[in-house]
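Note to self: the last two entries modelled the partners one at a time, which told us nothing about the interface. This time every component goes in together.
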Amino acid sequence: MDVFRRLRGFYLPYMRYLVLSIVMLVLTTALGLVYPYLLKQIVDRVIIGREYRLLLPYLGLILAAAVVKGAFNFGQQYLGQVFGMHAAYDLRNALYKKLNRQPFSYYDRVHTGDLMSRMTADLDAFRQFLAFGFNNLVNFVLLTSFGLALMCSLNAWLTAAILVLLPVLGWIAVRFDSLLWPAYKRVRKTLGALNTAVQENIMGMRTVKSFAREGYELGKFDGRNEAYYASNLAAADLWKRFFPYMELIGNLEVCIVLFVGGWLVIRGDMDLGDLVAFFSILWYITFPMSQLGYLLNNWTQSVAAGERLLEILEAENPITSPVASYRGKMRGRVEFRGVRLVQDGQEVLRDIDFTVEPGQTIALLGKTGAGKSSIVNLIPRFYDVTEGSVLVDGIDVRDWDLDALRRQVAVVFQESFLFSTTIFANIAYGKPDATMEEVARAARIADAAEFIEQLPDGYRTIVGERGLGLSGGQKQRIALARAILADPAILILDDATSAVDMETEYTIQQALQEVMRGRTTFVIAHRISTLKRADQILVIDGGRIVERGTHDELVRQDGLYREIFEMQFRDRDEFSDDWLRAAVNEQRGVQW
Amino acid sequence: MVMAEDRRLDDELRAPFIYRDDDTLDKPFQYAQFKRLLRYMAPFPKLIWGAFAATAGGIAVALVTPYLIGRTIDVAIAGKRTGLLAALTLALLALYVCNFAAARVRIYLTNKLGQNVILRLRQDLFSHVQSLSFDFFDKRPAGSVLVRIMNDVNALQDLFTNGIINSLTNLITLFGIVVIMLSLNVRLALVTMVVVPFMFLLSTRLRVLIRRSWQVVRVRMSRINAHLNEAIQGMRVTEAYVRQEENQRFFERMNAEYVEKFRRATGLSAVFWPIVDITGSVGTVLLFWYGVHLLTAGEVTVGLLVAFANYLGNFWTPISQLGQLYNQLLVAMASSERIFEYLDTRPTITSRPQAPALPPIRGEVVFDQVVFDYAPGKRALHGVSFRVQPGETVALVGHTGAGKSTVINLLARFYDVTSGRILIDGKDIRDVDLATLRSQIGIVLQDTFIFSGTIMDNIRYGRPDATDEEVIAAAKAVHADEFIRQLEHGYFTEVRERGSRLSMGQRQLLSFARAILANPKILILDEATASIDTHTEHLIQLGLRALLRGRTSFVVAHRLSTIREADQILVFQDGRIVERGTHGVLMRNKGYYHHLVLTQYRFMA
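The predicted structure of the combined assembly is written out below.
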């Protein structure tokens, strides 16, 4: 019940639909019971009592009852659905909004698949309970009590005879559903596994074909295809085991009513009309009983689903703007003061101190996992420091308005992510009202303009999951253009050109020189050639700054930087620097 | 008008997100296609007849019982014959028990039949898709192939499980009811059946409307899901670029549109049963109105009237199920058309009939005047010729699109040459069995594909029968062992294509291990361009050296260290080999190669 209390904000505003729906449901049920009553009247009074003038009025009543009942039935179903639908709409928006503001650490923890199943399956389970689960429970109680009351009023003995079997039916129904649920879960699971196998096979087709592993893939597929087949048959087996029993019990009731009822009529303890009416009511009470399992399950599922939704809605978010926040224009001075960062109990960074003046370029170098990305992620507050502070323009980033801070800092991530839309809209992601000229200019600087313009649809080309497949290098260049267009005071390039070849990287660097002027730029890269022009180079190892200085200073020291430098430049040891310089100069005169 | 067009174009250009919907979801009935579908049921005659018999048995009971109940009321109860009442009740009980048994058999057999057909159909489709060539996959996004193998096949499940068997039995039921009613009383039967055509109409037409309206809802839902999926995956970008408010507006509009479609569909659905109910009552009213008429004339009895009321109720089920079948067929037509389209696509690259197996090779490779057009009029290679001795390393150098990848793709016979020929150990590769060719060629792609499973499984992909020790030895040989052991569960760490924590360099080392395990005589290697941390880079170079030893190797090379050590360098420009020779010779020539090397290195100076 607690779940429903915590989620009440989503459905209380629409309670009027539910109330109206339930009123109509009660009326529908009541009118449903009028039908057997009218039938009894026709048999008793018209046929047996020979009051033929009553026939037409009774038939008219039957028709009228059917029409009115139909209208109410429509109303109760529709309004119930509208109730669930509105609540689900609000809930979906609220979940989306919440997810849009969750910190990066949250997304490090959760899986996309898990969030997806909460936003779809769980949300729908909850909606279903609101839309008809609740109604059905009310209906169940009403039908059984109305039905039993009416039966009792017709004949108590006959009712008692039926009551013997009803609990058995209910028990079977509940047992059935408790087994059916895991069986269908298993069907979905095997379907998921089959889906993964097929998907990987198609996506990895080059690998499959180059190792001539089609046979092996067929074997893997067959295994999963058969598992899916088996789980489907297992679910069908449950139907086979339970459903005929439920049907049989319903039919046994018919036999009981016929025999006991018939005997009562023969003895003169009951009217024939009552017996006919009894048959009609029988259906009203056996059918919901066979649904009991489903109803109870619907209820427990919706509680569990609601809890999983609340886990999202009530998740903590420590990274928010303070009340009195700073939102000025950024110049780009960055200062780290004694920064320590602990994530999942592990110390990722410690003793990080450095200052960058506006317009400077600072490079970070180190092994994978050394902590380079962790440092730059603290600037736009993707994470908060554990100790110490990060200041931008002398103001602690935690005192900045979050949106104002992030709008003036642009990051190009290691893994470039493109959305399913046009290349234009992807570049303009941070500035949706950009003009075509601005977008094209950013693309040119990122060395993306040329390949984009060669596409048949140019900037209108749809990319992303279902769109055109771009190479890793092309994606990176679009991501870079996105950052350039955002016109930030601080530009962060987190290994942003890893997938482009050396020549393209060179072109991009030349073009970036112009963009970087007047902006503070952070560059993370592995190639010394990318870093060497930086005003300051920080060499990171094990979460600490182990060396700092310019390229010329660092190369002279006997440290990690020098070691990396030598490894990378071993390739060209046959050319002396002088030889290369001369050759390049000579070449500049040649037209290719 | 022109302005409106511009506006539309501009909206599309700036659309925050664009989601394409699936293909059409239903198609008109086509007999030939239906027959082809039915053929998938042919291997299971026992299941078909069994299911048919059980279903028919169940229906027979359903038809006889109303009559029996009617007789019991008329003769036994109205006639006050207790003995007869007991006998008839027992008979009824016996029938119900038969029905119980028939239901068990029916549920079991129909499901078994349907699932078997689906199993086979999917097997056929998947193994056929496996045999298709690269040109097939080049043209289609992976997602659309997946949808056909999974969703389109599943869409036929209902049809095969219940649809066909039920509809046959339902036709018989309808016929049976009509016959029984007519034989009991012709005039009453005709009057009662007045509502039947209307029921048919409801069951087909209204159902079509309802189904389509739910399809619209599902399409909207899958757009929402597609968006949620990418919104979650791209959330870091959204937060970094402060796009939350625009996205929220987009999502709320999407959500509102979905809710509107949902309202329509749920409204239509809510209308269905009330209308069915009302139609049923009209039938009942007609029955009693005319029945009482006949009763007074002494033509019918009360029991008969009750029996007729029951039969009227029994009409609805078969009509409803036939209507359902009608809808299932429309859906099945669209899905099966898409399935058959794939099944009818012939692979372009196949082994010739009775092509001999390629015996274990030494690794001599000859390209003889090879021309390749990837589309008519679009030539990728213009008469390329070269010879490689067993064990040599060849570096392929040149810009993107110069023809390096084409050479590699032709050598592994992913495509066939347009003219000229490719010889391995003197044999034209088109004349030997494809599988024996490819299993002797190892390919290491720049973009290594990681299958979900353990690291061990992924390396073993190179040779499924390799022992754990052999896998580890392969990893050690290419210097991948070190990083693998540092992973949480070592060789048994679970990885998958997306979201796996392996870096680019680590993935490449894994694919080296895969290739060395397969131990091919000819190795093709597409060197990665990604910058990798210097330590891993060092490992890769060591691994590479181990991998190349003793094999004929083709390397699309980016690193100077690899190129320099090659026995032969082929320099490509616009689909032609413009220079060839060793590094020393080519550098001295000061030609195109010399230029390429310098452009790569000039910014280091």
